Amino acid sequence: MRMSEGVEWALHSTSVLAMLPPGWTLPAAKLAELHELPAPYLAKHLQALARAGILAAVPGAKGGYRLARPPGDVTLLDVVTAVEGNTPAFRCGEIRQQGPCAVGREHYVNRCAIHAAMADAEDAWRASLSAVTIADLNARVVPSLHPDTVARSLDWVRDAVNKREE
Amino acid sequence: MRMSEGVEWALHSTSVLAMLPPGWTLPAAKLAELHELPAPYLAKHLQALARAGILAAVPGAKGGYRLARPPGDVTLLDVVTAVEGNTPAFRCGEIRQQGPCAVGREHYVNRCAIHAAMADAEDAWRASLSAVTIADLNARVVPSLHPDTVARSLDWVRDAVNKREE
DNA sequence: GTCCCTATACTCGGATAGCAAGTGTCCGAGTATAGGCGG
DNA sequence: CCGCCTATACTCGGACACTTGCTATCCGAGTATAGGGAC
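^ inputs. structure came back:
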């Protein structure tokens, strides 16, 4: 079971965008440069986030991406689901209905117990991710960083960002 | 994020083996036949379960697989980990240490907040799977099945199993 | 009749091809900007 | 000097190759059994 690498990129990018003041946008290329990521591939994931209504894409010159909702209204689960899709990791093939001991399909009224247990586990996983918002995340991120990183980032963003009157 | 199909097969197979009386074994080919699964591929996963100490392989004629521990001592997490490996789904690439705003590696003493949140979610997932044993599972499975399936399975197993004096 | 030996058949175990999904990349459509021109 | 128009450059969006890991399979090593022979 392996999670797409794009999830990590999407979370970091969303976290950065959440720190921008309203009206500021950051192009995908700049976001990629900030973490030394392959720009076109990151763009693909940012598009997925925009489709999910997490980011808003501002087209044209001086455009870029910005958060579409307040950081407190975006959970980690929202971001993960936007990139990975909402299909569960464990997919029940109903193999209990196959083989020499199976009976007619209409007799399997109760849900498969294995399926149920695996679904419960994934629900716990989702609940844990839903409990943390991007705002919570940033509240933890900034104090944990070295002051030099914060200062450099402020300068860098001030240069890379595209401001626009709302 | 997609879980290996072998996890489902391993869980069903382990559940079936847990119902066998002590001293009875079931060959991999028979287990595959029971659920109409590709026998060689299922065998691969059963080997993984044996390597993890969940199943015990009895070699030679009239051999087969049996549970290595009491069903109450085998959790769903044990089975999933045996098949999928213990590497976490989310792997932190520490991309925060890359890019123009990064500082020396020695300054990143706090764990990455994103990494921590994702790890917490996976811990919740593991905790949910650890809370259910194969014994619990079977206690739920049997009453949920149609009586005909139970009867057929008893007959089928009685014919397919390899008994041996302990 | 009993014990031992041998050949057999069946079991698991690891090493080997095929395929799908994720990874990485590119070029085209659309838009706000900036400059130039006319009034 | 002000407003409008046009060309530009930059942005996002979807369609196209490539690589890694899962899927599926095979054949070889090892062992308990079952039968036959000798005592």
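Residues 2, 27-29, 43-44, 46-47, 50, 57-65, 162 of chain A lie near DNA strand D (CB under 10 Å from a C1'). The beta strands of chain A are 24-25, 55-58, 64-67, 162-163.
thumbs up if we can close this ticket
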